[in-house]
Amino acid sequence: MRCTYMLDSPSEDVFDFDLYVSIWHEADEYLRERGVRVSYSRMTRFNTASHNAHLRLGSNLIGHALFLQAWCLEVMLATVAPFFAMTWATGRVRLRIPGLAPAMLRTRADCRTSTESTL
């Protein structure tokens, strides 16, 4: 997949490639100390364990993206901008990750309570 994820607030948001969710409690402290308010994750629909872990942590769905590859051609269809893209060989899609409205942000205490009650 040749995609660069663009965050609205890169100083306050991070993108999680399954590192932070697997060591969430330590990562939560580390990120909070650095002013990070949101951690985004890319999940495959086929990894149900990761999906369930994210749900227990209070995740919010912000979009879908489908990537198809054939030789050097890659096609992306998404529910977030740019919605459709084609790249060839070394080209990269720049997928805009929408910022979360304050009402969608859960507090760390909410996530801990949710996690502890469902484990």
Structural summary, described in words:
The chain has 119 residues and is α/β, with parallel strands linked by helices. The protein has helices at residues 24-33, 48-56, 108-118, and strands at residues 3-7, 13-16, 38-41, 65-70, 73-78, 84-88, 93-97. The protein has a 3-stranded antiparallel sheet, with no helix packed on it. It is globular. It starts with a strand and ends with a helix. The model is unreliable at 107-119 (pLDDT under 50).
What keywords describe this structure?
119 residues; alpha/beta; three-stranded antiparallel beta sheet; two-stranded parallel ribbon; globular; disordered C terminus
Structure in a nutshell:
The chain has helices spanning 24-33, 48-56, 108-118, and strands at residues 3-7, 13-16, 38-41, 65-70, 73-78, 84-88, 93-97.
Distance between the termini: 33 Å
Beta percentage is 25-35%
**Unreliable stretches:** 107-119
User: Strands of the biggest beta sheet: in what spatial order?
Assistant: 4-5-6
Percent of residues in helices comes to 25-40%
Count of DSSP H/I helices: 3
SSE pattern: EEHEHEEEEH
The chain-level structural class is alpha/beta
Radius of gyration: 16 Å
From the spread of the alpha carbons, the general shape counts as globular
Averaging pLDDT over every residue, what do you get?
Answer: 77
